[in-house]
Amino acid sequence: MTENNPILQTERLIIRPVEDSDIDFVYKAFSNPKVTKFLTVSYPDLEATKEQMEWYKHLKNKKLGYWWVICDKNSEKKLGACGFSNHQKNHQKTEAGYWLLPENWGKGYIAEAFGEICKYAFENLSLNRIECIIEPENSNSKKIMDKLNFQLEGRLRQAEKVDDDFVDIEYYSLLKQDFH
Ligand SMILES: CC(C)(COP(=O)(O)OP(=O)(O)OC[C@H]1O[C@@H](n2cnc3c(N)ncnc32)[C@H](O)[C@@H]1OP(=O)(O)O)[C@@H](O)C(=O)NCCC(=O)NCCS
């Protein structure tokens, strides 16, 4: 068990810290356009994916966030990942992210895994607020927000540039007081 980034379990899943040796799995996700369609990064090869692995380490070393790999409890197969970044200690808040390889979509895995790390964060990381930033067209992700009781706070128009296009983003949040 690693400080602030322990192994967690749910009914169907083992949720354990991301390790350097997960790079092949991370590359598989970040080179798949279905996964990266609404993410801010993608990687063309394993070499470039090292940047993502460095980012996970940087977050942890600086206590800016923690990421977990989501695995099937029985087969130990890696399904996806979820975690936090951009911790702001003074405001007791963080930003969340999550993804699954497409073959694992539609089985409720993210609601289960992400719900568990939110619980962990509220109970153990002194957090009061978890934010999610979602593109309005990402309907699958918005359903996760509904399932976990995140509240839509507003839409920032053309707040990000993806390739040559400006895109809107929506802010969602979950507060400790509303978590159940
Ligand atoms: C967003 C994401 C993590 C959802 O995870 P999930 O575990 O599949 O979520 P759920 O099983 O609860 O399904 C959510 C919705 O996806 C849709 N869905 C289900 N199976 C699907 C499939 N095979 N293909 C496409 N969409 C599907 C359904 O509308 C479902 O809603 P429902 O449960 O009301 O029927 C997943 O779609 C993903 O990895 N997307 C790419 C990465 C991403 O966008 N991350 C979020 C960035 S903000």
Automatic annotation (TrEMBL):
N-acetyltransferase domain segment(s): 13-176
Pfam families reported for this sequence: Acetyltransf_3
Keywords: Transferase
Origin superkingdom: Bacteria
GO cellular component, one term: cytoplasm
Gene Ontology molecular function: protein-N-terminal-alanine acetyltransferase activity
InterPro entries: Acyl_CoA_acyltransferase, GNAT_dom, N-acetyltransferase
Name this protein carries in UniProt: Ribosomal-protein-alanine N-acetyltransferase
Lineage: Bacteria, Pseudomonadati, Bacteroidota, Flavobacteriia, Flavobacteriales
